[in-house]
Amino acid sequence: MDDVFLTTGRMALRPFTARDAGPVLALDGDPSVMRFVNGGRPTTLEAVETRTLPRLMHVHPCLGTPGYWAAESRETGAFLGWFEFRPLAEDTAAVVELGYRLHTAAWGRGLATEGARALIDTGFTGYGVRRVKADTMAVNTASRRVMEKAGLSLVRRYTEDWPDPLPGSEYGEVEYALTREVWAERRAGDDVHGASPRRGTARAHAVSGRPSAPRATVPDSPRRPTGDDAGDPGARA
User: Fold this and answer.
1) Where are the strands (E) in the chain, listed by range?
2) pTM of the predicted model, to two decimals?
3) Contact 126, 162 (CB under 8 A)
4) Domain coordinates in residue numbering, the chain
5) Which CATH number fits domain 6-232: 3.40.630.30, 1.10.540.10, 3.40.50.300, 3.40.50.720?
6) Which of 146, 99, 126, 120 is nearest to 201 (CA)?
7) Which pLDDT tens digit goes with each residue over 91-128?
8) Which pLDDT score, from 0 to 100, does residue 195 have?
């Protein structure tokens, strides 16, 4: 696991490379994983190599890092999926978008929550992040649970005029968010009351600062790039 950016109790997060085309194709080819992203439609290797990987590998100048991280098991080295921690603007990391997409075999184990918490803690303490947000379909209760467990709160409900609406779109979308101020207040409260550290957060640490990663152009983001992970898993974490 070269160029590891962050480790948690059970995972290592690293930059994507061109060698990840196969694992990403398998992940995005699983209808269960993609249910709330594109309705479960299959993708192609060409699409992964020309559109998906350039987006996953893009380095954001304001962070000096990519906005997506490949997640691997620390025990086996197996590819588990990915986490998104992507600034909404290229010139500032003040607001970042949180997302996660894991293989079904990783669902129900708390991994999405573990990775999300570790990235949030790292972003607030070392990268100048002021606000973390995440969006998903209102009916995606599994992914919403991960957002809540990671510390985000519901801030609004809204609707989108999708050209190809998925089942459940009629119930709208939801946005969750967490500010650095609220995060700091909660952490201070935990310290005062001697609360036990959350799994995955206490042991999370940046391993190699801001790793270099290949630059690439960024095509348009996919339809629902964040939190749609009950097609993701963590959703079940």
Assistant:
1) 6-7, 11-14, 59-60, 65-66, 68-73, 79-89, 92-102, 131-137, 153-158, 173-179, 205-206
2) 0.82
3) no
4) 6-232
5) 3.40.630.30
6) 120
7) 999 999 999 999 999 999 999 999 999 999 999 999 99
8) 54
